[in-house]
Amino acid sequence: MATPVNNLPRTLMAIIAISGLLFGTLWVVRPFLGPGIWAVTIVVATWPLFRRLQGWLGGRRGLAVAVMALVLLAIIVVPVWLAVDTVIEQSDRLVALVRSLPTLKVPPPPAWVQSLPLGGPRIARSWTELSQAAPGALSARIEPYVGSVLRWFGNKAGSFGQLLLHFLAMIIIAIVLFARGEVAARGVLLFFRRLAGQQGEASVVLAGQAIRAVAMGVIVTALVQSAVSGLGMVIAGIPRAGLLTAVVFLLCIAQLGPFLVMVPGVVWLYWSGSPGRGTFFLVWTLVVLTMDNVLRPWLITRGANLPILLIFAGVIGGLLSFGVIGLFIGPVILAVSYTLLEAWVREDEPAASAHPSPAPAAGAPPPAA
Question: Among 302, 304, 301, which Cα is nearest to 205's?
């Protein structure tokens, strides 16, 4: 009987070589990891819509890919470019505003501020103190904050070009995935089937469902909130309601919510001497702000067969850990971990005990033989 040869050095060198290749590969593709994650998220979330669009265009894949690329450019790159252009155009006005701070004088508060339902007297008292102070008192209070904002903006201004390159790389990767989506999906399924068997394949399917569910919850909730916000702004008579509605939609997509637009609208209505419309819009704002807590979880749980607590923890934890992209990464990580853990726990259970049949109701006829 032959004695087995000790291949420990060979195995160790193979592990070192494979680890070096993996590290080198990750180092090379590191600049594309962020755009790639966003591209995969967008493609997985919009794949049913893309296939439907391809059917409408007579099955022409290239034309459908071109339409999706134009849509992504219109939704992502063009608004960022316009925002950067607007900031550059308004930079002179911003500098003039900062220079006028030392001579800025606050007018006395209107009479209706005293009658505000929440903290009206306190707001009126603080406002009166600011209006009676010397012209440089207000600038002395806000100068540290203005300086911090200007320094932050100066540090970030040079990254706008990098942001545009990031978006363009994301769109290019998304175009490739749209064109070769079936091949990419088959490769991912084969890899995870090789890694974890049927449980790995089921985890990939569940991850796709989780991405689509979160995308549905985020986008539909943003659409509903922005539409209701715009309707309220039109009824209340706030100018430029269409532009503000678009800003609300972008803020909702970024998970900042309509608060940053609607609350200044309430303040403007009271400031302009319309307390009745201001109170109406305040109530409308409270309704819109609470819609996010009800509509989004319901839409997400409808799209993925996962516990609501798991989805909620994935969305919130992912947002806090990874930023906006964490809205999708968090639920996917928890969904895959949950599926693999459940399959491992139930691995040795018989099929009958894993999925017990419900007991017959009282008085119901016995099952047929």
Answer: 304
Query: DSSP secondary-structure letter at 4?
Result: P
Structural domain contains residue 359: no
Residues 230 and 225: their CA atoms lie apart, in Å, by: 8
Q: What is the value of pTM for the model shown?
A: 0.61
Q: What is the pLDDT of residues 111-168, one digit of tens each?
A: 666 666 666 677 777 777 766 666 666 666 666 666 566 666 555 555 556 666 777 8
pLDDT attached to residue 142: 64
Are 121 and 208 part of one and the same domain?
Answer: no
User: What range defines the domain where residue 108 resides?
Assistant: 32-147+159-179
- My answer on whether 127 and 209 are in the same domain is no
Q: Which of 203, 207, 241, 248 is nearest to 226 (CA)?
A: 248
Q: Cα dihedral angle (218, 219, 225, 228), rounded to 10 degrees?
A: -160
Residue 155 has, within 13 A of its CA and on its CB side, a CA count of 6
Angle at 146 between CA 141 and CA 151, to 5 degrees: 145
Non-local CB neighbours of 340 within 8 Å, separated by 6+ positions: 196, 199, 200, 203
Residues 220/300, Cβ–Cβ less than 8 Å: no
Q: Domain check: are 208 and 169 in the same one?
A: no
- The answer to whether position 367 is within a domain reads no
Burial category of 228 from C-beta neighbours within 10 Å (exposed 0-12, middle 13-18, buried 19 and up): middle
- The DSSP result for 103-117, as a single string, is G--PPPPPGGGGG-T
Backbone angles phi, psi at 233, to 5 degrees: -65, -35
List alpha helices for the chain, DSSP H: 8-29, 33-56, 61-72, 78-89, 91-99, 120-132, 135-157, 160-179, 181-236, 241-253, 259-271, 275-303, 308-322, 326-345, 351-354
What is the CB-side half-sphere exposure of residue 348 using CA atoms within 13 A?
1
Is residue 170 located within the same domain as residue 275? Answer: no
Contact 164, 78 (CB under 8 A): no
